[in-house]
Amino acid sequence: MSFFEIHDPVFGSYVMGNAPVKQLATGFDWVEGPVWFGDAGCLLFSDIPNNRILRWTPDSGITTYRAPSNYANGHTRDREGRLVSCEHGTRRVTRTELDGSITVIADSFQGKRLNSPNDVVVKSDGSIWFSDPHYGIKTNYEGYASEQELPCNLYRVDAVSGEMTAVVTDGNCPNGLAFSPDESKLYMADTGRMFSDDPQHIRVFDVIGDGLSGGEVFHTIDPGCADGIRVDTDGNLWSSAADGVHCIAPDGRLLGKILVPELVSNICFGGRAKHELYITATTSVYRVTLNRVGAQRP
Ligand code: MG
After folding, report:
1. What are the pLDDT digits (tens) for 140-169?
2. Residue 190 belongs to a domain with what CATH number?
3. Does residue 297 lie in a domain region?
């Protein structure tokens, strides 16, 4: 059995035929938001329904990083290496300072509460970009069922002024985010309203100053939809899907798949050379070593 499905010959050079898709840990309910801390040699990820952030290391396996986590979902690190987290339960985005204290980055817009921030990226200028779909307030499974006060927007928070702007307001349910390596483009997964006919696809925007333009459909994942996305140093997009992880060329073509036996929610690059892909997939975390390097920083 192969762990890979090759759709374009170049994908054969991105993977190694003898590198397994290895299950590192299992027994969770819905894992999301993987983020690699190379300085600590660990992976953090959310187990959302169980209201906790977990830590995995090669030597110690799984330990608890934070519980309760306010039903945290997506994470990233900012330019100073600090953890930035989306929290469903408190409907906010926070930063964990190096002394462990929590700073609230955003919890409202124009006087109304955010929905349930889902995923987040930080640009090289320190600005924080996050998606705010309603999944975490629709039921009590991944947060607290509550009234929706705002559309499902994509927001930018300025690093200096803290000013918050809605940069995408015409999405259905914005979800995973990734900048191209040169930050000239922003990819945004839109996973739509559950059990609806909403389009589910990845859109691509041109980054113009502090805003975005364009927004055409870049790629439609099949089967499933793009939840979490990451980019490698050559600008290939790696996306979660129902059957694993799909690799998409900068021109939008599917190059190949990493097959994973559970529905994948999100991914991140990590390891010594950012050459390992960590995969959160429903009840388990997997890892596969690639002949690729993640573009995410730091
Ligand atoms: Mg997500």
Report:
1. 999 999 999 999 999 999 999 999 999 999
2. 2.120.10.30
3. no
CA of 75 to the centre of ligand 1 (A): 10
CA 120 to ligand 1 center in whole angstroms:
9
Calculate how far, in angstroms, residue 80's C-alpha sits from the geometric centre of ligand 1.
23
Judge whether 105 lies within some domain. Answer: yes
- pTM of this structure: 0.97
Q: 179-228 pLDDT, tens per residue?
A: 999 999 999 999 998 778 888 999 999 999 999 999 999 999 999 999 99
For 172-207, give one letter per residue: b (16+ CB within 10 A) or e. Answer: bbbbbbbbbbeeebbbbbbbbeeeeeeebbbbbbeb
Q: Which of 148, 184, 194 is nearest to 295 (CA)?
A: 184
In total, how many domains does the chain have? Answer: 1
CA of 46 to the centre of ligand 1 (A): 11
Using CA of residue 57, residue 103, residue 169, residue 194, what is the dihedral sign? Answer: positive
Q: How far is the CA of 96 from the centre of ligand 1 (A)?
A: 20
Write out the residues surrounding ion ligand 1, Cβ under 5 A: 118-119, 175, 227
Look at residue 295 and tell me if it is in a domain: no
Asked whether residue 216 is assigned to any structural domain, the reply reads yes
By residue range, what is the domain housing residue 70?
A: 4-289
